[in-house]
Predict the structure.
Amino acid sequence: MRKSVSVKKHRVNYKGRVFTLPLVIFMVLSFSLKSMASEVDSVPEEISEVETNEILNWPKGPETSGRSVILMENSTGAILYAKNIHERCYPAAMTAIVTSMLAAEMCDLDDEVEFSTQAVRDVPSGVVNIAIDPGERLSVGECLQAILIRGAAECGFALAEHCGGGSRDAFVKLMNSRAASLGCTETSFTNPVGLHSEDHYTTAYDMALIGRDFFDNELLCKYSLQKTLHLYPSEGQKDEIIEHNASGMTIGGAYEYEYLIGARTGYTEEAGYCLIAGAEKDGMRLIAVIMDDGSDERYEDAIALFDYGFSNFTMVNASENEKSYNIGSGVASYGTTDIMGDSSPMFSLDKNDRVLLPLTVEFSDLTGTISYDGVTGNEAARIIYSYEGTYLGKCSILFGEPSDSYDFGVKPEEEAAEEPGKTFVFINIAMVALISAIIAAGILLLMGLHKLYKRYRKVHPNWRRQYRKERHRSVFSRWGNKKLK
């Protein structure tokens, strides 16, 4: 009996283990799979994709550590490298480039700026300053150097008060208006020096648009690259002030770059490490913006971006390469007969307009579309160039006689067949047809109204005029009768 009982208990325990083992395995696998799924889901949050690397046949850009990064060509605004460029970030002391641009335009460099108590004491502890006291005075030029070389916050406040008629708020409104005029739609400034605020933000794209304006100012670019700020004693302030540029890209710096034309850094705990820099080589000027870099590799990233841009892209003259374009159903007209008699072409291409071109594609690979938006002055229209939906530049179509003829729509093999000596006239058929239709409709409408009016007069004669005629007849009739008597 004991043996059988023992065997029976053994069987019961065995069955229980057989049932429990698959359950344990299932729970372990479920937990493992859940953990793996969690890890996979978290990867996109840590790794930011470079959007431009997804463009077909586009030169592959370098890996960068900033959360939001852009490389833009200055003259066209074309984007060579894009990584979260519309993501909202804090600009920190990069804000100084806007403050300096406005101050340089509104003031003479020799104008004196007096430091108010508020301008000095509103600088928080730990924020960069050059220890100016209330009541002291510096020139506008010295203040510009102080904010671009050292990032001196009290100088930024003082300049804002000086340019804003004593009101920093008024100056901040000017900053926001200037940003909007440059095309910035995702930017809001609340102070002139970049102190952290939830409402003080921008994007890498907007910052690059601002940079296009800043890097056109040679004096401000020169200030931003000076290694040392050196202010001598004067009547306004009695001390000799020597401060060093915190940027690593200045002349003689650890990350000195041969083609650099200007740079401004920024840092707060919330903003991370930031940098905007400009470089120029062989007639191509590039702007790099790096925002929210947690590991402070911004200088290496900027150099890698510039090398990438200069090595993989070039600027080409649009007028020298353009041979044909389409504008939908209203194509540009061309022909071998000069409809204006012995005259010159009515339109020409702007010979100064250039287009950014990746070395991996040909100019003929670009898509050109006609646009009438934003035309000014002597412009008739614009050819907007893009590749795989990415904007690369424009070329203006101008009214007037060009120095060379451009036979749009004519293929190279057809050029040889054209009779020499003929002049091409290019007409926007859609526009001409629209204007002609409006004029013709107006003439027909007037003719119809005139015909209706005549018919109405015939059926419904003017009773007042008829009354006057009958009255005249009766008067003359009575007068004639009296005369006969």
